[in-house]
Design brief:
about 15% strand; about 220 residues; binds BIS(adenosine)-5'-pentaphosphate
Length: about 220
């Protein structure tokens, strides 16, 4: 299956993607995670991406599309993938359509996660991420940890993302409304969008997502 997950910053895309990709045995491809991995490895791409990410802006299309394309073409993505954070504007969606057509592949569904803005702000304020490669995500108040600052899965150090400051989150939300939301209409025209309310317990939302995917698969 090939799935696009779209939603505002902090909607829970990464949280849901981890469960869904695992249960469908497909690759979870997050452009944000790919950029963060480049930043921690101090690559040229990482240096470029960091300046845009820290300001809450999108990284330029040219480098983002090339990076996403390269990842989707890896052998482990042959059986399918769940894209988290890509495409993020109409130009990226058009480039993705071109890639699908060239590779004779089809996109099965676009899941649009809906969360009110005040909830998004609370989620981002409490988000803590593990520094280890698995980058497990926690929430400081919704999901109290056994040990402060320590990943409950692998024992790694937890940190707060540089782009999770209140000012940058406001900018990211503005960018989401102006540049990313239009892709929902773009995909509605293709009849691919399923909207999911992403408020409530993580596991209940996962159940809704899996039910929606089953309906799409049965079509
Ligand atoms: P990216 O990393 O993609 O960030 P984002 O889209 O802003 O999304 P987030 O990672 O902030 O949130 P999420 O929806 O994954 O939520 P999470 O599951 O962590 O992108 C970062 C930057 O990279 C961009 O700003 C841009 O600069 C650049 N970039 C990336 N892709 C790009 C592209 N295609 N083009 C150009 N630039 C690009 O959950 C959030 C918190 O809530 C966590 O603490 C979690 O534990 C908690 N939580 C989750 N679900 C629930 C729930 N149901 N109830 C309570 N808490 C919950």
């Amino acid at each position: 299956m090939r799935i696009v997950l779209v939603g505002p910053p902090g909607a829970g895309k990464g949280t849901q993607a981890a469960f869904v990709a695992k249960s469908l045995s497909i690759q979870h491809i997050s452009t944000g995670d790919l950029f963060r991995s480049n930043i921690s490895q101090r690559t040229e791409l990482g240096k470029l991406a960091k300046s845009y990410m820290d300001a809450g802006n999108l990284v330029p299309n040219e480098v983002t599309i090339a990076m996403a394309k390269e990842r989707m073409e890896q052998p482990d993505a042959e059986n399918g993938f769940l894209l988290d954070g890509f495409p993020r504007n109409v130009s990226q969606a058009e480039a993705f359509d071109e890639l699908l057509e060239n590779e004779s592949m089809q996109l099965d569904v676009v899941l649009a996660l809906e969360v009110p803005e005040d909830e998004v702000v609370k989620r981002i304020a409490g988000r803590r991420v593990c520094r280890n490669e698995s980058a497990h995500v926690f929430h400081a108040t919704y999901e109290p940890l056994a040990q402060d600052g320590v990943c409950g899965v692998c024992g790694g150090e937890l940190y707060q993302r540089d782009d999770d400051s209140e000012e940058t989150v406001r900018k990211r939300l503005e960018v989401y409304h102006t540049q990313t939301e239009p892709i929902i209409d773009y995909y509605k025209v293709q009849g691919l969008v399923v909207t999911i309310s992403a408020v409530g317990k993580v596991e209940d939302i996962t159940t809704c997502v899996m039910e929606a995917l089953k309906c799409e698969d049965d079509k």
